[in-house]
Amino acid sequence: MSISASDPRVQLGLRVKELRARNKITQEELADRCQIFRTYLSRVESGQANPTLTVLHALAQGLEVSVQELLDPPLGPEDARHIRVRADPPISRGRVLRT
């Protein structure tokens, strides 16, 4: 079963990804804020999950927006598919890189 770009789940996923990138947070951080699994958040962002009202409220709170703003259409669906937010680089624990 293919998912259409006009599917509301895809639109929501793109919007979540867009807002997460705007806040410069990773999936892991947003999932922690919302108390959901990162893998589930990934499915939401890819349009493969159909989140409950409770999850929508948690996502809105984690992204610091209203539920209404969360449900607004994404601004640029073509660009949002390629957004990557990386976690901070790991802190060195005493290893020295030799060149």
Automatic annotation (TrEMBL):
Quote the PROSITE patterns the UniProt record gives: HTH_CROC1
SUPFAM superfamilies listed in its UniProt record: lambda repressor-like DNA-binding domains
Sequence ranges assigned to domain HTH cro/C1-type in this UniProt record = 16-70
Entries under SMART domains matching the protein = HTH_XRE
Q: What Gene3D superfamilies does this protein's entry cite?
A: lambda repressor-like DNA-binding domains
Kindly give the Pfam families that the UniProt entry links to this protein: HTH_31
Q: Which domain of life is it from?
A: Bacteria
* Keyword field: DNA-binding
ATP-binding as a keyword?
no
Q: Which PANTHER family match?
A: HTH-TYPE TRANSCRIPTIONAL REGULATOR (PTHR46797), METHYLPHOSPHONATE SYNTHASE (PTHR46797:SF1)
Q: What's the protein called, per UniProt?
A: Helix-turn-helix domain-containing protein
From which source organism is this entry? Comamonas nitrativorans
Q: Taxonomically, what lineage is the organism?
A: Bacteria, Pseudomonadati, Pseudomonadota, Betaproteobacteria, Burkholderiales
